[in-house]
Model the fold of this input.
Amino acid sequence: MSAYIVGILVPLIVTLIIRNNSKKEKQRGVPADVGGEPGVAIRNHRVTSPVTTAWEGVTTLAELFELACKQYRDRYLLGTRKLISREVEITEDGRSFEKLHLGEYEWLTYGKTFEAVCNFASGLSKFGHVKEERAAIFADTREEWFIALQGCFRRNITVVTIYASLGEEALCHSLNETEVTTVICGHKELRKLVNISGQLDTVKRVICMDDDIPSETPSIAHGWTITSFADVERLGRENPIDADLPLSSDVAVIMYTSGSTGLPKGVMMTHGNVLATVSGVMTIVPNIGENDIYLAYLPMAHILELVAENLIAAVGSAIGYGSPLTLTDTSNKIKKGTKGDATELMPTLMAAVPAILDRVRDGVLKKVNAKGGLSKKLFHLAYTRRLHAIEGSWLGACGLEKALWNFLVFKKVRAILGGRIRFILSGGAPLSSDTQRFINICLGAPIGQGYGLTETCAGGTFSDFDDTSVGRVGPPLPCSYIKLIDWPEGGYLTGDSPMARGEIVIGGPNVTVGYFKNEEKTRETYKVDERGMRWFYTGDIGRFHPDGCLEIIDRKKDIVKLPHGEYVSLGKVEAALLGSPYVDNIMLHADPFHPFAVALVVASHPALEEWASRQGIPYSDFPELCMKQETVKEVHASLLKEAKKARLEKFEFPAKIKLLSDPWTPESGLVTAALKLKREVIRKAFAEELNKLYAS
Done:
C-alpha cells in the first residue's frame, strides 16, 4: 500500500515542483534602458523597442480599416439585433418599465460596411462639413457610431467623442471648447442637445442616427440643419467624393474623459497613438481572428471600447452590438422569456469594466443561494476544487474532473454569456481578486486585466493569457515602457524591498499629445525625454513583481493624511470593502481634521432584503430598511469582516457609515460613464450626511 501511495504522490509532487518553478522562471517583463527621470523601467519581453504598428505599411486607423475590408470583404463585421416590439411592464407598486423584445442579429459584411463608411464620408462633405471643422459623436454604442467614426477618418476629420450619459454642463463645455460644427447623435441625445441649444456657440448641423427624428426639434428653433444618418449615406452614395486620408501625426480623436473631478478634459489622440495600442494588444491576444465574435456594449466614447472595436475590425472578427441593459436574459430591459444579447450572439470575446463583472458574480451567487440544498453544495464543492487546481494544489487538477465540473455545474453559468467566451478583457478600474478568480472559474475563460488611461490610449499593461495570478495587471504592452519613479512624500521608493515601488510613468508611441486647449495641465503631466520619448505621469502608484508584472497599489490623489500622521488610501480601502455582499458601491471619506474615516455605502437591494427576511425584520420599503439601526450594524460588521481579510489598519476602517438606498449611476452624475466615483460631486451631494457622521 505504501509503495502504491508513493507511486502516486511522487509524480504529483514532481509535477507541482516543475509547474511552480516554471511559473517563477517565466519572465513577462524585462528591464529597459530608457531616458528621462531616473527610475526603474520595464518593457515587454517580446519586443526590444515599443511597437508602433503590427501591419506593414499601415500608419493610420483609416488605412488599417480599408486594408481589413479588402482582405475580409465577404465576412460579417457589424451585427445589430432587430427590434420586434417595445412593451411597458407595470409592477405591483404601480411603477412602469420598458421591456424590449429583440430578434436575431442582422449583419453587414466588411464590404458593405466599407461602402457605408465611404458613403457617409462623402455625404458628410456634401452636407457642408469641411475637414478643418470638428465633428462630435454623442450616442450610445451602436453600428452607426463605428461607421460615423470611420467615415470621419476617411475625410481626415477629427472626432470629438462624448459619453451619452454626460450632463448638460459638461456637454456644453465639450462642444463649445472644441468648436464642434456637426453633431452625430441618436434621437435620445438630440433631445438633450435641443435643451441646451441656446448655449451652443458653433453647432450648425445635426445628424440623427435614428430615422424617427423627434417632432419637437424643428430646425428653425435653433438655426441648425437636422437630417438623418440614412439621408447622409444616400447623399454620399449619389455624390461620391475621393477620400482625403490622414497622416499618422494627425489628431484622430479628442476624447473627453468622463470627469471624476471637475469638468472633463479633452485628450488629443493621433492616428499613430491609437494604432500603437491596437497593435500592442493584437500581438498578445492568442489566435485572435476570423473565428472570433466580439460583444460590444461598453461606451465607445471610452478608449477601451474604441481600441477594442478597431482591433476586432482589423483582424477579420465580427462585432455584435448590445447594451448593458439588454446583455443577459435577465437584464432590466429584456422581455421575460426572450434572449439577451449574449445568449443570442454567443460571443467568444468581450471587454468589461469591473462593475459589470461584479454584477455577473453577484447574480450567479444570488441564484445559487436561492436554490439552496444539493445544488448549492455541489456548486461550492466544484468551485473549491477548481480554485485549488488553479492555485497549484493537486485537488481538482485532473482534466477529467475539470470536464465533469464544467458539465455538471459551470455549463449553466457560462450560458449566461452565451457559453462560448474564451477571453475577457477587464479595464477601466481595479478588478477585485475574488471577482477575477470567480469569473475565471465559472466562465472557464482567462481575464486579461489591463491598465491604461485615456492619456495613453488605454495602452499600459495587459495580463498574459496564461497568467493565472490575481491582483496584478500584467507586464507592459509591446507598445509601452512602464517606469516607476520615487514619490518620497507618500513613502514609495524604487529602492524599496522586496519590490520597487513608485509613481507609474508610461512612455511610448501610444502616449497622446496632450489636453486640448490646456497647455498648463499638459506640461504638468506629459514630458519628453532627451531621446524624444514621450512620457505620461499617471499619479498611480505601483510595484513591480520579480517577473516584470505590475501591481497597482495606490493613487496619489486618493491618499489622505489624518491628524496623527497616518495615511489612508481611499481607493485601496474601498476595493477591499466592496467584497461585502451588502455593498453595491462605497465611498470612504477622510480628512486631516478628523482622526477617523467614515463611509457612504450604497446598499445592495437583494442581499439586504434577503437578510431582513431571514431575520424577520419588518419594513415598508427599502429606504426604511436602510435607516434601521440593526441594518446599519449588520452592514458595518460585514465591512469589518472584509477589512480583516484585507488586513487593513484600524485607522483605515470607517468608524461610522451611512447606508444609502438609491444606486449611483452615470445618469445621477455621481459616477462616471466608466462607473468610477466622482468623489467631489458625491462629497458635495452628501455633505450633510458626512457632517452628521462626524458629529454623532
Notes: Confidence is low (pLDDT under 50) at residues 1-23, 393-397. The chain is about 35% helix and 20% strand. The CA atoms of residues 644 and 650 lie 9 Å apart.
